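Notes, Module 5: Reading structure tokens.

Key idea: the token line is not a picture. It is a compressed description, and you learn to read it the same way you learned to read a sequence, by spotting repeated patterns. We will look at two proteins. The first is printed below with its tokens.
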Amino acid sequence: MTADVFVLYPPDLDRDFDTALANLGFGLNPAGLHRRYRREALRLNTLSDFDLGMLGIAREEIPAYVMRDKFSAFAARFAFRSANS
């Protein structure tokens, strides 16, 4: 017997990805970026708010956090926060 496992991408994360990318400006391919960072975003989304807080992020910041290597604006935000925590 096998069990089917369905993992649904939480709609809030899609909205948060769109918001984060819109704040950066035009010329981006959100679909490609969603696919690239989806696994890490889903993993982080399974953590409790407390655990996310221990990482220095809020749930709505997950997209920016996972894309911090791609966009210097995100990297600077999280580098500053971790250095001053």
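Here is the second protein, with the sequence above and the tokens below, as before.
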Amino acid sequence: MSDKQFVSVFRSSKKADTYLYVRRGQVWDELPESLRGIFGAPVHAMDLILTPERKLARTSGRQVLDAIADKDFFLQMPEEQDSYVVDFRRKPEQRQS
């Protein structure tokens, strides 16, 4: 694997905060059918030159480049948000904040 690679980033049309990193020019139909089904139509977000040292919002350049070398893609899913879950079985004064 080279030290840097030109990568395209797409956002999912089906799932919020879900992004797919692929080599620039990757043919969509060559990616796994199961991935294409859950991801939906890809919406181009940006192109970038990625190096192993580059820090991204939720991962590192190294992790993305390793996944692309291994699987031809890196899928970034949204972080779990426990704060959105409210226990409606308890009265508000019994809920922990």
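Summary for the second protein:
- The first helix runs from residue 33 to 39.
- The helical segments are 33-39, 61-71.
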